[in-house]
Amino acid sequence: MATRHQSRGAVIGLLYAHDIGNPEVQQFSEDLLEEKKIRNKQREFALGLYNGVLNHLETIDSEIKEHLKDWDFDRLDHVDKSILRLGTYELLYTELDRAVVINEAVELAKELGSDQSPKFVNGVLDAIEKTTSKKGEEA
Q1: d(CA 25, CA 18)
Q2: Which residues 6+ apart lie within 8 Å of 30 measured at CB?
Q3: How far apart are CA 57 and CA 49, in angstroms?
Q4: What confidence tier does 71 reach under pLDDT thresholds 50, 70, 90?
Q5: Would you list the DSSP string of 88-113?
């Protein structure tokens, strides 16, 4: 049985495919998850994350852009962008523990990104987390 970590890794793959110009990937998302042996509750979890990111993509991208320092969003590595999108979605729209969300994103960056990816992903998501927690406290 797949873990949530493996499910998130599969979601990164789906987001990556979407980002590089393959929007049809959504039609085949369930088949792709089955191919990676992500089934039952983990499949539901993965599809929920994937569809959640796509449904809130404009807000998520805006939040990421706001927290990029000296980086052009459009020039971000597609893997890093996909990891940031998933992490930002989880920070903004789920009740998961924020430390777990950031840790999972950093671990995915270690596995899938470049040598600089984990530090970069951690920095951006940490900044988003601090801003969103502040907004929550003010509300």
Answers
A1: 6
A2: 43, 47
A3: 12
A4: confident
A5: HHHHHH--S-HHHHHHHHHHHHHHHS
Report pTM. 0.92
| pLDDT above 90 (res 127) | yes
- Can you give the C-alpha Rg of the chain in angstroms? 14
Closest CA to 36 of 76, 60, 9: 9
For the stretch 11-39, pLDDT in tens is 999 999 999 988 788 778 888 888 888 88
Name the token pair of 33: 């998850």
103 burial class (0-12, 13-18, 19+ CB within 10 angstroms)? middle
What lies within 8 Å, CB to CB, of 125 at 6+ separation is 84, 87, 88, 91, 101, 102, 105
Q: What is the DSSP letter of 76?
A: S
Question: Given a cut of 50, is residue 139 above it in pLDDT?
Answer: no
Helical residues (DSSP H) of the chain, grouped into ranges: 4-19, 29-35, 40-55, 57-67, 78-93, 98-112, 117-138
